[in-house]
Specification:
Order of helices and strands: EEEHEEHHEHHHH
Distance between the termini: 53 Å
Helix content: 55-70%
Shape: elongated
Length: 274
């Protein structure tokens, strides 16, 4: 694991998924991480309410592993193996009772709140053994997330490798077309010279001036020369392959190179007149 992410020498997809769990002495938590494409690094964390204060530190911890993408993290408390002492927060219980009584009176209701209902309200019943060191719990959360992040990265690497192979296949096809065009450029010039000569003979009913014919062919060659476009296109195709093997984020680079490839192909089509 490097400073900015779990690295590999392969292109990675932006889409990933992983799960994990942490089982403490009295608590069980499930972890779920999803990543999708995004211009920046956006982290969204959903925690049990009593652990909201973990959010900032877990967010920074996540950004050390991912450079880009939207990362959604869900941490759920699944239950408790509690066998310790139970404590009632009488102040919280009394507060709930008074609030409910106030609204009963306002709504002219005669029912009094039942004890089991009051005990089920948040922060009334405290499981004293659950008041463990929050720093220790936060460390466990980070360790569990680190394991889940590795699962996410493996999925992203696998999908990214599939995309890279598809890119290579398509680059091979384009490269074959480029080679075919390079072979046919001399044929295009010869064909033009022959057509031009036949046209002049047909119009003038006489043998064309060879010097003038050579000038016209030279002008045509200069106007339709695509050697520079073919050279740049081959260079862009090679560069595209090299970038797919880089460790860092390559999406923006590939997007730029693809625009350049498209530009050369458009120019090639416009100039070739074939």
């Amino acid at each position: 694991v490097n400073e900015r992410g779990i690295g590999c020498v392969c292109m990675k997809s932006m889409t990933g998924y992983g799960t994990g769990e942490y089982k403490g002495k009295y608590k069980q938590f499930s972890f779920e991480v999803k990543t999708v494409n995004h211009r920046f690094c956006e982290v969204n964390i959903r925690l049990p309410p009593r652990f909201y204060h973990f959010e900032g530190e877990l967010c920074e911890y996540t950004k050390k592993h991912f450079k880009r993408g939207r990362i959604d993290i869900f941490i759920r408390e699944n239950g408790s193996n509690h066998r310790g002492r139970v404590k009632i927060d009488e102040g919280q219980l009394d507060h709930y009772f008074k609030v409910i009584q106030k609204f009963n009176k306002k709504l002219k209701m005669k029912e009094s709140p039942r004890l089991e209902h009051l005990l089920s309200l948040p922060h009334v019943v405290i499981l004293e053994d659950e008041e463990e060191d929050l720093k220790v719990l936060l460390d466990h959360f980070k360790k569990t997330l680190s394991t889940v992040f590795q699962k996410v990265e493996k999925m992203r690497e696998k999908e990214g490798e599939g995309v890279r192979k598809e890119f290579d296949h398509r680059l091979d096809l384009v490269s074959e077309h480029v080679k075919e065009i390079q072979k046919r450029v001399p044929e295009i010039i010869s064909d033009y010279q022959l057509r031009l000569k036949e046209r002049i003979e047909k119009l003038s009913q006489q043998t064309p001036d060879e010097w003038r014919l050579a000038q016209e062919v030279a002008y045509f060659v200069d106007r339709t020369d695509v050697s520079e476009e073919l050279q740049r296109l081959a260079s862009h195709l090679k560069h595209f392959r090299e970038v797919t093997k880089e460790k860092d984020s390559v999406g923006r680079k590939l997007d730029f190179i693809l625009q350049e490839i498209n530009r050369e192909i458009n120019t090639l089509g416009a100039k070739s007149q074939h």
